[in-house]
Amino acid sequence: MKAVAGTAPGGRLAAALESPIVAMSPWIIFSVLVGPGRFELAVGLALAVSVALLIAARMLYRGTSLKILEVSDVVFFAVLTAVGAASSPGTHTWLETYAGEISNLALVVIAFGSMAVRVPFTVQYGRERVSPEYWRSREFLRINYVITGVWGTAFLVAAVAGGFGDLVLHNADNLWTAWIIQIGAIVTALSFTEWYPQVVRSRNGTGEPPPVRNLLIPLAGLIIPVGVVSLIFDAAASWFGVGLIFIGIILARAINKDAEMTPPGAGHPRRRRSNRRL
Length: 278
What we know:
By secondary structure, the protein is mainly alpha-helical. The protein contains eleven helices and no strands. α5 (68-86) runs antiparallel to α6 (89-116). The N and C termini lie close together (6 Å).
């Protein structure tokens, strides 16, 4: 894949700002941190990160247009900060309880809304990584539709989990609904975002298909800590926490064993090279 020439200086910061994952970091920070007694911290940090990312992007990408997520980040958290500052004690308590679900649902609307108007929000970032001749390619569009949909689904799962904890369990800080399920959904989306483009490119003949273990490694690494935290905070039956740790260990060993037994490039039939490139 050819990078676009002359859009930005090189370096890790420029590469990071080209990623939609970085643009979603204010939302992730907010949805994870917000809760009783933490609204000001969560919204203040999310707004600060949003403004910093917008300024950094404009400094490095002077010739590029504003992105859906960049604008949404600043507007949403600026409005939420103003509402929180001017709210009554009752409204402030409501925000501490439900603002996490509101932010997650806002991202769901952004993700599926951008797909509905045929501009998945990840496309704007992808276009800065490839030459213009690839912007309308089937593979490029498919990658961005699927990844945008996965992120929309992940935040929908987070919103439903948070809503269940607030409305059904009446516990905004429930370990499972407020933390584990929401973080698990985000980790899954992060892992898929890195893994799926390689799958599409391999089908196009531009590389070997990535092993499934690359998708599972982050999830396997999450199971053991979840089991430990479940035992420490007595968030579930002891057998359940021990079972998660046991499953995590077995899965991690299986993944490591598979990686050791499979040399790089082995285990996959060679695909015929194609002139089409993503």
